[in-house]
Each structure stands twice: as structure tokens, then as C-alpha cells.
Amino acid sequence: MNFTLILIAAFVTTTAAGLGEDIAADGKSKLPNGEGIAAKFKADTGIHKHESVIYANGFEGQGDWKKLWDETRDKDGQVLSLVSPPGGDPKLGKHCLQAKATLGHDTGGGATKWFESSKTLFIRF
Question: Sorting pLDDT into bands at 50, 70 and 90, what band is 15?
């Protein structure tokens, strides 16, 4: 499974926190829709500076990317790796996180980032 970006954005809304209260009487969502914040940032460059973004990692930086996460699960250093997909897409960065699961050896892996809760969170990966 490849992840090109982990982006967590928090928005303060006036909707109640109760389950299902984000659905209008006509059955349509009251939540915002459309291209969102990311449409303003080519290949997400600089998106981490937007006031509503609480965490972004495009895996483009140099050094140990794992230090930017609170927890990583990478058995024997063989599960998680940064890769450069062939062909590329100018809307995306040059790297993504690849997570492998090998039957009989491991159950895959991943990266976790902890953050303060908010009434409404939008997550993109």
C-alpha cells in the first residue's frame, strides 16, 4: 500500500459532535466538499504552513523521516520504505511511503501521529 501524503487538517465547525448530525434533513452531508486546501498547493509544497493544517508529511525531506512520527511499526526495518513511483504525477511529490506485509513473517507496518482532538478533523492520505 502506498501513501503519498499524510495530511491532517482541523476545522472548527458549528455542527454538533453527535453521530449523524452532519447529515441534513434531505440526506446530504453538511460537511464541506470540493477540492479543499490542497488544491492551492502544487505537490503540497508549503501546505504545512496553512493555519488549518495540524500535520503534513510528504516524505520529501532528507534524513530520518521516522523521527517526524510519534510511532512507527517497521519489523526488522523491512516493512516501511520510501519509494519513487515510476512515471510520477506533477500534482504529487517524488516519494511515497510503501508498507509491505509478508505472509508468515509480519503483519505489515505503519506510522502514527498523535494530536489533540477537535470537533471535526479531515484526514487525507
Answer: very low
